[in-house]
Amino acid sequence: MGKLEFFSLLNSELYEKYNKVFPDNELKCLDEQYGRFFDILRLKNELHVLYSSEDFKNKPIFEIIKFMNLNKLDLELKEEYKLATLIATIPSTTASAERSFSALKRIKTYCRSTQGQDRLSSLAILSIEKIILDDLKMNPEFYDNVDDAAYYIPNFITEEQETYIMNKVNSVPKPKWCQLKNRRLQNWGGIPHAKGLIPEIIPDWLKGFVDRVDSLQVFPRTNRPNHVLINEYLPGQGIMPHLDGSLFFPTISTINCGSHTVLNFYNPLKTDIEVVSSEKVYSLLLQRRSLLILKDKMYTEYMHGIEEVTNDIIDHKISNITFCGSKVQNGIALTRNKRISLTIRNVPRVSKLNLNLLMIKK
Ligand SMILES: O=C(O)CCC(=O)C(=O)O
Ligand SMILES: [Fe+2]
Fold first, then answer.
1. For a pocket test of ligand 1, which of 233, 254, 261 has the largest count of ligand atoms closer than 8 A to its C-beta?
2. For the chain, which terminal residue's Cβ has fewer other Cβ atoms within 10 angstroms, N or C?
């Protein structure tokens, strides 16, 4: 039996047949190759559900993943979800399949050496995120209000990882914090400068998350993420509408921890010389543990900011409401807690010439 025979477990054309005769051989093949990543018995039960369900009929694998995501079945049928993401991320030739799976191995060790089922599921989610991103791009609902490129990925990190980040951020020495009027921040990776960045090593606990964002390949290979700004907001704190400007490569990725917030986007009304006012055009609800990516016009044209309030009322201006789960509905109020955001960006590297200039200036 070929190594990838188990692919046919999720071949929708065979579901009817499998509903009558379960594909034990294909499942065995999976067990032999990747059994240590799966609860095979549970998977078998979940596959029985899949083969007999109308919901999954004639759905190609990517549709299955999307359907499971939207209906929160990724947790209910988590072994099956893991299988779907595994199959979707293994290219069809064996050589590259080996490479693909080595990525899963890499992820498996990136934060901790032990690997529970929950974490592995989120790793599977990670592997599929590239596809989700591409799909979101095509999704008219998502673009209803939002101009150009904004991607929102709920549950990008697990609860454990969220706690891990918050503990690490809280335990850094006091001088690392920079206290502003309405929030505090930490700067990791070096101080961005108009002439580039003199890089500083990002500590391992943080680098794992930078690498994870990097693996989504939303940054070009020439401008991979190398800088993290950590903002801490207490309830009632926020950030004035602003553009991140030219110090950074124009892509922002943000991991959200501890609390939701609402990020507003403003259309700046400019004269030739200055911005005279701005008009709120979209808002995104950033839930705990989610990842947000902003690119293109969402970086260069629209200012972003967070209001200084303690509660957010969810209304029709929230453009990503369909991605926020069934509990988030128009009209509800969400109370803010302390929020830690990791803003992961690229500061183009300082050239030798620029480095010399910087040194001279000092
Ligand atoms: O905390 C956030 O999500 C936004 C932070 C931000 O816009 C910035 O630091 O430039
Ligand atoms: Fe910003």
1. 254
2. C
ipTM of the complex model? 0.99
- In 60-126, DSSP assigns E strands to none
Helices 94-109 and 117-138: crossing angle in degrees, nearest 10, is 120
Distance 305 CA to ligand 2 centre (A): 7
What residues have CB less than 8 Å from 287, skipping those under 6 apart?
154, 256, 260, 324, 325, 328
Atom of ligand 1 nearest to the CA of 233: 1
Closest CA to 168 of 211, 108, 225, 230: 230
User: Among 341, 346, 347, which residue has the most ligand 1 atoms within 8 Å of its CB, making it the best to mutate?
Assistant: 341
**CB-neighbour burial class of residue 22 (10 A; exposed 0-12, middle 13-18, buried 19+):** middle
* Ligand 1 atom closest to 229 (CA): 9
CB 358 within 8 A of CB 193: yes
Expressed in angstroms, the distance from the first to the final Cα of the chain is 67
Question: What is the CA(304)–ligand 2 centre distance, in A?
Answer: 6
Report how far apart, in Å, the C-alpha atoms of 6 and of each of 92, 280, 303 are: 12, 50, 48
| CB-ligand 1 contact for 231 (6 Å cutoff) | yes
Q: 3-state DSSP: the chain helix, strand, coil percent, rounded to 5?
A: 45, 20, 35
Instruction: Locate the ligand 1 atom nearest the alpha carbon of residue 254 and give its number.
Output: 3
pLDDT surpasses 50 at 162: yes
Express each pLDDT in 59-69 by its tens digit: 777 778 778 87
Predicted model pTM: 0.61
Q: What is the residue-averaged pLDDT of the chain? A: 80
Give the closest residue (by CA) to ligand 1 atom 3. 341
The answer on pLDDT for 355 being more than 70 is no
Place of tokens 């190759």: 33
The response to whether residue 229 sits with its C-beta less than 6 Å from ligand 1 reads yes
**Burial environment of residue 243 by CB neighbours within 10 A (0 to 12, 13 to 18, 19 or more):** middle
